[in-house]
């Protein structure tokens, strides 16, 4: 039987590992590719980031407006999603 504490420790350990992977990936990006390429949105990863921040929230927001019964709650959720991120 798995306890709540064990699950919490496992999730915390997973998040620490993912954080370390992210730090290594950014270090590799800055060391190999150079810092200036981070601002070139013509690269493939730049296009992916633009899609992440523009198209995906619009699709999810439209789905929320479709499924939610209250327009006010849907609007609050959609605005908070755009402001705080997906």
Automatic annotation (TrEMBL):
Highest rank taxon of the organism: Eukaryota
Segments passing through the bilayer: 6-32, 44-64
InterPro entries for the chain: DUF1475
Keywords: Membrane, Transmembrane, Transmembrane helix
Pfam families hit by this protein: DUF1475 (PF07343)
PANTHER family reported in the protein's UniProt record: OS06G0581300 PROTEIN (PTHR36318), REVERSE TRANSCRIPTASE, RNA-DEPENDENT DNA POLYMERASE-RELATED (PTHR36318:SF4)
Name this polypeptide is given: Uncharacterized protein
